[in-house]
Design goal:
- The chain contains ten helices and 19 strands.
- The chain is of the alpha+beta class.
- The chain has three domains: 131 residues, Sandwich (Jelly Rolls), CATH 2.60.120.260; 192 residues; 108 residues, LytTr DNA-binding domain (OB fold (Dihydrolipoamide Acetyltransferase, E2P)).
- The strands form five sheets. A six-stranded antiparallel β-sheet has the order 2-1-3-8-5-6, with no helix packed on it.
- This is LytTR family transcriptional regulator.
């Protein structure tokens, strides 16, 4: 029994049939009488005519007359196939318009009856139509071949076997991170990474669903567009995470610009496979560009991230659409392993009580995911809001980022703190005065720090500090 299982695996992984017969060239004709024809490559035919007729001559050597022969078609179209003028089968049914066409499967194999096979030249004619496509496709024909019948199911499984194997790692990593989150070992900072893993796992399942489901070509197109959409989600999540971690810019702005670039690429590039590839490359190049500033400051995390993103972009460009079936999921599997190891090894919390805390001033506890910072309010010069995060700028020059909103942090601080702008609050103990700036009044703080004062907050600041415009420094 074990020997048979091993033999099946070897057949799936290495047993690909050799196609002994290859057509010399294909012709596309404008009518059934094959009067106006031109030499074409089927994979580049757009199928814009109501009916497209492709034909070629297949030469069968004398020794292959008794061998089985099939016509195989992978295309987003319906097809009717004739061998030496005799119909040998159809995939759906081609028609002159949408009402008369029956959508066919994306993949079809039509076996040629042996009685129709001649010694020498044989004429193959394929009539195609694609009226049920709901998006324009630049290359609706993926492959047309004649020769010994191929095990289509085995080929499909063999093609997606690497995807199936590597997909297990992101799926397990997602379950482990979810368990750690529920156990309190990690905080909300892991949520974006978990969202990326969830999108990749969903993408993988849609990808390998072809093993079990024989899609008609309209549903195959829908499947491809879902894969492209999930690639967009993964790319934008990764760009947003990079912006939050390393770049002093608004994540929403960065994600918006990247999304616009992805949209333009999808308009310019035809075909869901190449669109997905372009979207992934744009995301990787955006991450590499975002991390350059931090990398120039010799931030090791930024240097490593920039190199990885650039390497993945180059790998995807060189490999082409095949990268999405293999390299994409291999990269996700490696990233999933790193995420889980980092989550397990990173301490869950920091000690709530340090060795020595001055008794003269109480400290506040501010949350950073599953970690906590103990901060003396008097050492805070000002606070800056950053979406759901808040950064504390300390008297000694440090910057502490916490996973709390500015409003939530101010609720824990004493009355010495006042909001002067939608994005800033200050410790009035470090306020030296206010003065007119190029775009309105500004506040001068310790350390030569200058912050804008919003018009909606100016009166509250004057009431709080008794500093009017006339007393500006």
């Amino acid at each position: 029994m074990a020997y048979r299982v091993f033999a099946v695996i070897l057949a799936l992984c290495f047993g690909s049939p050799a196609w002994a017969i290859a057509p010399a060239r294909w012709q596309a004709c404008d009518d059934a009488q094959t009067v106006h024809c031109r030499i074409v490559t089927p994979e580049y035919e757009r199928l814009t005519a109501p009916l497209t007729t492709l034909s070629t001559t297949v030469r069968v050597p004398p020794g292959a007359i008794g061998d089985p022969i099939a016509v195989e078609i992978d295309a987003m179209a319906s097809a009717l196939v004739r061998w030496n003028g005799v119909v040998i089968g159809a995939n759906g049914f081609p028609g002159a318009d949408r009402a008369s066409e029956t959508p066919g499967r994306y993949s079809a194999r039509l076996v040629v009856p042996r009685a129709l096979v001649r010694d020498g030249d044989n004429r193959v004619t394929i009539v195609l139509s694609a009226h049920h496509l709901w998006l324009p496709i630049g290359q609706p024909i993926h492959r047309i071949a004649t020769g010994p019948p191929r095990d289509a199911q085995g080929y499909t499984l063999r093609h997606y076997l690497p995807t199936l194997a590597t997909l297990a790692l992101p799926a397990v990593a997602l379950l482990v991170l979810g368990a750690l989150l529920l156990a309190g070992r990690i905080g909300r900072q892991a949520a974006p990474a978990m969202a990326v893993l969830a999108a990749i796992v969903a993408q993988g399942f849609v990808e390998i669903s072809k093993i079990a489901i024989s899609y008609t070509y309209p549903w195959h197109l829908a499947r491809m567009e879902v894969l492209t959409g999930l690639t967009v989600i993964v790319g934008l999540l990764l760009v947003g995470m990079t912006s939050r971690l390393l770049v002093p810019l608004k994540p929403r702005i960065v994600v918006g610009i990247t999304g616009m670039a992805m949209g333009v690429a999808c308009l310019i590039i035809g075909g869901p496979d190449r669109q997905s590839l372009a979207v992934f490359e744009i995301a990787m190049l955006a991450i590499a560009a975002l991390t350059m500033q931090a990398a120039l400051r010799h931030d090791r995390r930024a240097i490593a991230l920039a190199l990885i993103a650039a390497a993945l972009a180059v790998w995807a460009y060189v490999a082409g659409p095949d990268f999405l079936d293999t390299g994409y999921y291999v990269s996700a599997a490696i990233a999933a392993i790193v995420l889980v190891i980092g989550a397990i090894l990173r301490p869950a919390t920091v000690a709530e009580v340090p060795v020595a805390i001055p008794a003269v001033e109480p400290v506040v506890t501010l949350r950073d995911g599953a970690r906590h910072h103990l901060v003396a309010p008097s050492q805070i010069v000002f606070l800056k809001a950053d979406d759901d995060y808040c950064s504390l700028h300390m008297r000694d020059g440090r910057e502490i980022v916490v996973t709390m909103t500015l409003k939530a942090v101010l609720a824990l601080l004493p009355s010495d703190f006042v909001r002067i702008h939608r994005s800033h609050a200050i410790n009035v103990r470090h306020l030296h005065g206010t003065k007119a700036g190029p775009n309105g009044r500004v506040a001068e703080l310790s350390g030569a720090i200058v912050l804008p004062i919003g018009r909606a907050y100016a009166s509250a600041l004057r009431a709080f500090t008794s500093l009017g415009p006339a007393s500006a420094a």
